[in-house]
Amino acid sequence: MQIMRILLFEDSHAEDLTPIALLRPVFELVCGRDSLRRRLQRWFPEAEFGGWVRPWLVDAYSEEQPSLTINNLNWIRNGKVLVVNGRWLPECRLTALDLVTYQAGFVDGHPAWMLIPGEELGELMQGDPATALTQYAKSQRGLPTSGRWIQYPWDLVYQNAAQLIRDFADEGVSQSPKLDHVQILGDPADVYISEQAEIDPYVVIDARSGPVSVDRDAKIQSFTRIEGPCHIGRGSQLFRALIRKGTTIGEHCRAGGEIEESIMHSFVNKYHEGFLGHSYVCPWVNIGAMSCTSDLKNDYTTVKVPLHGKMIDTGLSKVGSFIGDHAKTAMDSMFNSGSSIGVCTMVIPGGRLLPRNVPSFSSVTFGELAGDWTVDAAIEIARSMMNRRNQTLTLNAERLLRIVHQRTEQERQTAMQRAANRKVVRS
Hints:
The protein has 427 residues and is of the alpha/beta class. The protein has nine helices and 38 strands. Helix 2 links the parallel strand 4 and strand 5 (69-70).
């Protein structure tokens, strides 16, 4: 029997997930407990996985995920392939019984998956893969498929609570060990605590609004309160934290203060007091003490977020910040609702709200954008933070940072010019 092969691909909307997808494929973004890639690997543990990603991501991502075959036409041509759009957020488990050659699963009129003979797929991938795959899918028998599309960063946050509930039910977690010193509110069956997790006395887990899962090697300090739905990832530490419902704390994070309906991808450091709400925070971000993200406007109107030089109306009244990899924010940083903070940014607050758009590889000093933040300085700080966690910034990862620096140059120049114009007007 031939081993099932699954190809996750990025379509033309991948750049709309800036800044949180600048250093990773869109199918590595987290919603619920996992990314789409990890969710599919759980559903199909025997399958071989490949990816088709933006060209500049290939080297770094191949190094990060050596078990995946990336942008390889020879692998694609070797038999049938289940092709899955990386922006699809499935709402129920996909099984092998759902999959038939020359059929495609559609969500809101757009193909989420299709099973294609390898030779045909190989031809489609040589031009514009996203367009070719969409045209191919429309020529096949269409099947209604459950799920939603992730088009913008706030979609991940908005869908997170519901996805946490689905993931808890889907994984069928086993009974937790009995911990008499942990106060559980609600049904204990809605709480999973790994036997390898460490929880101090005087911790409250409230599962009345949704399930709570605590993965192995997590450490939770006394006087922490966790409200479901929520997931605490492997190796993460919580310090006297208030974790509100709809929150995912990814692997190896350090979390304190109040966090509400947010996603901390992994290796995020928010150790101190401060509020993080309705936000997505990428790896290797350090959030300084007493830093806060506004997630609600005073007039209660919908929040707009800067993207590609335009303000996009989210249609949502609660939207926080989207913080790219390796961003560093000093203490008392105050983020406006709907802020976009790019990769390798340095934020030094000055007692005022920060700019809504801080482009990658730029700095903020006393509330003003500055152009004196060099790529070399940013990379050295990224390297230092990773070393503190016994991780290494590889040569491929450094090359990717330099590529992203080049690709975001125009955005920086435009933002700096606008900031200079505003300064002239004020003077």
